[in-house]
Structures are given as structure tokens and as C-alpha cells.
Backbone:
């Protein structure tokens, strides 16, 4: 079997394997196959320059794949923090300062507006224990359902 592989596996087999693995990464999650595909492309390029037996090719491919995967998991992935606030409404809204558009005087709730949309909305309902007038600035301290809990700034 190894003799057959030694005579029939060429550099372009590794290049095709690498492209297939990288393409397969589109259909699976985890960003794992990409590194195996990248290592296969590396093996294909290396075989153009340096011919070697299949066992050494497989060992180098496995070593390069594992090294790339470990480097991804250990060093690169932690740097790719999710900076979006999707799914984290409380974190996105808490601490934001808005301008009161409708006062809560005589009512339970008022309406405020942020300078830029937050979570897709510029205007939000708010609840404040103090009476606030139109034009006052308020800071979000919490969320209750779809209503913001605010304090006057």
C-alpha cells in the first residue's frame, strides 16, 4: 500500500486536498478544517521543491495541521473577541446617556432618544423614579422588558 502511495501521490493531490478541506470549512463550524487544508496546501508546495516518501508527507501534514490548530486556538482565537452586542441588550444599553423626548411627569413612563441607534432603535421608553423634563439627560441603569430604567444625569 505504501509503495503504491509513494508512486501515485503527487504534489497536486495535496493541493486538491487542501482546497477541498478549505472549501469544506464553509459547511462546518469551528474553523478546524481550514488549518488541515492549509497544511495540505503547504505539503503540496513543499513537494514541488522537495520529493519525499508518503510516510514523511503524512507526518509533516499531521504535524503542520496540529501546529496550526494549536496556534489558532492558543494565540489567534482569543484575539478575535466578539465586539458586537447582539444578544446582549443589557450590556449594550447600560450606561448609555439619552435625551428625554417625553417627560414622565404625571405618568409612569417617558420616552428618550439616543444620539445613535442602539440595538436598532434610537427612541426607547423609560421608567425613572424621579420626574424628568423634556431635554434632560438620563443614564440607563437597567432594563425591564423593553423599557429602560434610567436616572437623571
Residues:
Amino acid at each position: 500500500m505504501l509503495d503504491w502511495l509513494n508512486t501515485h501521490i503527487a504534489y497536486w493531490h495535496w493541493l486538491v486536498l487542501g482546497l477541498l478541506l478549505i472549501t469544506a470549512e464553509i459547511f462546518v463550524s469551528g474553523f478546524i478544517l481550514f488549518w488541515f487544508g492549509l497544511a495540505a496546501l503547504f505539503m503540496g508546495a513543499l513537494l514541488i521543491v522537495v520529493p519525499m516518501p508518503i510516510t514523511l508527507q503524512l507526518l509533516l501534514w499531521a504535524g503542520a495541521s496540529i501546529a496550526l490548530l494549536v496556534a489558532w486556538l492558543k494565540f489567534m482565537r482569543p484575539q478575535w473577541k466578539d465586539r458586537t452586542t447582539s444578544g446582549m441588550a443589557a450590556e449594550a444599553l447600560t450606561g448609555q446617556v439619552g435625551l428625554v423626548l417625553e417627560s414622565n411627569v404625571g405618568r409612569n413612563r417617558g420616552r428618550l432618544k439616543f444620539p445613535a441607534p442602539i440595538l436598532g432603535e434610537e427612541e426607547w421608553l423609560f421608567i425613572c423614579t424621579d420626574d424628568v423634563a423634556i431635554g434632560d439627560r438620563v443614564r440607563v441603569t437597567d432594563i425591564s422588558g423593553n423599557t429602560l430604567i434610567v436616572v437623571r444625569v
